[in-house]
Amino acid sequence: MMTAKIFVCPVVIPAKSPVAFMILFALLMFLMLTDSIVSNISLESAAFTQKEDSQSLQTLTVTRNIKSDVVLPLSLTVSTKNNIVDGNSEHQNSLVSSLGVREKHGIGKFRRKLPEHEIFMSDELTKKFHGRVLEFFNRGCEVHFFMTWISKVGSFGRREILAAESVFKSHPNGCLMILSRTMDSVQGYRILKPLLDLGFKVIAVAPDFPFLVKNTPAEAWLDDMKSGKKDPGVIPLAQNLSNLMRLVVLYKYGGVYLDTDFIVMRSFKGLKNTIGAQSIDVVSKNWTRLNNAVLVFDMKHPLVLKFIEEFALTFDGNKWGHNGPYMVSRVVRRVEGRPGYNFTILPPMAFYPVDWIKIGGLFKMPKDRAGSRWIEVKVQQLKRQTYGVHLWNKQSSKLVVEEGSVMERLMAQNCVLCKHIYSS
Fold first, then answer.
1. How many degrees, rounded to 5, is the angle at CA 126 between CA 122 and CA 130?
2. Residues 361-388: pLDDT tens digits?
3. Would you call 325 exposed, middle or buried from its count of C-beta atoms within 10 A (0-12, 13-18, 19+)?
4. Inter-residue long-range contacts of 190-197, CB under 8 Å, 24+ positions, other chains counted
């Protein structure tokens, strides 16, 4: 007798028996056929799932055009636990599309719980935030400046460096802190090192967002946002986080907040509790809109607290500017003239001397003698009347600085590293 083992099942086969071999052969064929059928079913199931996913992506891609009135600003990024999510990513666009479809068909209000963004979290690095702020500004700083950067470190480019340079051109003894988790890194240090090598006081610090909003009206807003009770909307969240962060850091510490697309032209030392008008009525000369790209306020100023309160109570992530320029305009319109709110509103020439629609003209070279004269007059006017120029990055980020243009003159006059003048 001879024993053969198949799948650990003993089968006793008489030696040299044709019938036994036929039975064995049939058993093997049956097992192979069964395995093939199971495999095919699994493959077809996977293919069907992939097909469904593909169709879902195609549907989202098609519906991106339904909400055509949504205005998306420049690409901004937010760090998640392990990934960098780009503000213009397909994932975010699909969320915009989904919202558009739901609104179009009246399928209730779209709400989603935010992922655990790093900016919302406290860790060993961010827990040092308060101590690092106090230590940094305890260095004989002429003026305390803040910027925010909630984007990839690699996108902190020449324009942003120019903004930092211009701060130190007008404030050699000033201190600039960039609130940014991504810039608070080895790569961020390398970007800022040329300024550090010249002795300027600049640092990137990962902010402790929960600490900054603690004991302010924004604390409840953050809790609602993290729990999914509040809709973040379709506007990139980084933009609105920057709108809030500038307010809470000024309320906690006081100082000057600047956008990173701003060229400083003169000292801010004489400014106190100041906000700038973006536009005025040509007849009455009264302001029609304010902007929050530049804010100068003392610590615990009541107007800044009102800004934070308005942000938290009226937050709308689906309207561009609602939580920024329009928000500060709403608040100031309500409190202007009331006792206890001492602040100054400067005319557009102070910070916004060129409207965003016309900013491209500053980048153009003169075409004739009249053009050259206009550029000279404009440069002299800005030097006399302007604290700095907001570049309206959304409109001008792709523009090239042409030789002989107003922008070329401004960059050359207000830089300290003075590299790459002819690129934006």
1. 120
2. 999 999 999 999 999 999 999 999 999 9
3. middle
4. 191/153, 191/156, 191/161, 192/164, 194/417, 195/161, 195/164, 195/165, 195/168, 195/416, 195/417
Produce one character per residue of 386-412: b if its CB has 16 or more CB atoms within 10 Å, e if not. Answer: bbbbbbbbebbeebebeeebbbbbbbe
Phi, psi (5° rounding) for residue 4?
Answer: -110, 140
Residue with tokens 């940094």: 136
For 130-164, give one letter per residue: b (16+ CB within 10 A) or e: eebbeebbeeebebbbbbbbbbbbeebebbbbbbb
Residues 6+ away with beta carbon under 8 Å from 405: 362, 363, 364, 365, 366, 375
Query: For the ranges 43-52, 58-67, 368-377, which has the lowest average pLDDT?
Result: 58-67
Q: What 8-state DSSP symbol labels residue 286?
A: -
Residue 210: both structure tokens together: 């929960």
Q: How far is CA 331 from the centre of its chain?
A: 24
**Start-to-end Cα distance in the chain:** 89
pLDDT at 78: 30
The whole-model pTM stands at 0.73
C-beta separation of 254 from 246 below 8 A: no
CA 333, 335, 336 angle in degrees (round to 5)? 70
Mean pLDDT calculated for residue range 215-222: 95
HSE-CB of 144 using CA atoms within 13 angstroms: 21
Q: What secondary structure letter does DSSP report for 423? A: -
The two tokens of residue 324 are 């920024």
| Cβ count near 21 (within 10 Å) | 11
Tell me, what amino acid is at 188? G
Closest CA to 114 of 282, 240, 199: 240
Task: Give the span between the Cα atoms of 140 and 173, in whole angstroms.
Answer: 8
Decide if 117 contacts 84 (C-beta within 8 A): no
Characterize 212-237 residue by residue with b for buried, 16 or more Cβ atoms within 10 angstroms of its Cβ, and e for exposed.
bbeebbbbebbeebbeeebbbbbbbb
